[in-house]
Amino acid sequence: MTDLKKHFAVIGNPIHHSLSPQIHIAFAKENGLDIDYEAVLSPLDQFKNTMHQLIQQKFTGANVTLPFKKEAYQLATTHSSHAKIAEAVNTLEFKENEIIGHNTDGIGLVRDLEQNLNVDLKSKKILLIGAGGAAEGVIYSMLEKKPSELMLTNRTIEKSRAIKNKMDMHAKGFNVNFNVIEIAKLPHQYFDLIINATSANFNNAELGIDHKVFHESSLAYDMMYGKETSYMKHAKSQGSRVSDGLGMLVEQAAEAFFIWHHIKPHTKSVIESLRAL
Ligand code: ATR
Fold first, then answer.
1. Annotated active-site positions, please?
2. Could you tell me which residue, 4 or 123, shows the higher pLDDT?
């Protein structure tokens, strides 16, 4: 008998914490689709082999998480415009003769901000903390929304400068004041939205962001999810509205679901049920 069920997976290392199987199965159920979606742990030096095994087993697509997003970019034979600009891929489609790489992280962040948290990015002043893959992956999607200002900062400021140089031409196209600011100069600036895209929370490190950066009318967003981070606690103590990145996780999954199934799933109930856990 032919297996009509479509198979999907999320690949990472580590992967046991991943909520992606739960999210995609919930989307599928809501839309009457019968799919398989599993979490696959790939050895750090075996990403390509792991993916080729999935392709051989006729998987339809896969999500890719840390630390393989750059390798997934290399693996893809065709790239969406967002993947090309970020040089990182979190969603793959396996077709007959090609592997299409997408990046839905930026779209996920912007949708969470705009649709779930009611923050219109147009003409806003935004500060992005961090200069790793998580930060780089969302910059283009934010520029597309034409904030008045997008400032980059990072512990290692040279990395922010390198990203700025790479993305400058896009910022000019959208007429955004796109710049780098050192952490020490932050107290003299106002931002509507401050996004933590660092991995500092993994080891509970403080970011060294001065409390004056946070205002009652600003939103402090942390891309991490699962617990209130020290960054969120700090912002909250200064009267800022705060959010973790659970909504971004669900929204980036929704965009991947749309790419694979051409259906836009409802996200709010999934966010609520995950938050209740
Ligand atoms: P990812 O792909 O998740 O972004 P990454 O490429 O390792 O991971 O980047 C991690 C980011 O978190 C970087 O911006 C890093 O700052 P540096 O570039 O200075 O290394 C930041 N980060 C990690 N630990 C940090 C800490 N303890 N304090 C401040 N920033 C930290």
1. 69
2. 123
pLDDT surpasses 80 at 188: no
Q: Which CATH architecture has domain 6-103+247-276?
A: 3-Layer(aba) Sandwich (3.40)
Sheet holding 193-196, edge to edge: 177-180, 149-153, 125-129, 193-196, 219-222, 241-243
Asked if the domains at 6-103+247-276 and 106-244 fall in one CATH topology, the answer is yes
Query: What pTM did the predictor assign?
Result: 0.95
In CATH, the number for domain 106-244 is 3.40.50.720
Interval 131-172: pLDDT, tens:
999 999 999 999 999 999 999 999 999 999 999 999 999 999
Q: How far is the CA of 215 from the centre of ligand 1 (A)?
A: 24
Name residues whose C-beta falls within 8 Å of residue 254's C-beta, 6 or more positions apart in sequence.
27, 108, 111, 264, 265, 267
Pocket test for ligand 1, best of 128, 180, 198 (most atoms within 8 A of CB): 198
The yes-or-no verdict on residue 224 having pLDDT over 60 is yes
Can you give the residue ranges of every domain in the chain? 6-103+247-276, 106-244
| Nearest CA owner, ligand 1 atom 3 | 134
Question: Ligand 1 site: residues with CB under 6 angstroms?
Answer: 66, 130-135, 154-156, 159, 198-200, 205, 207
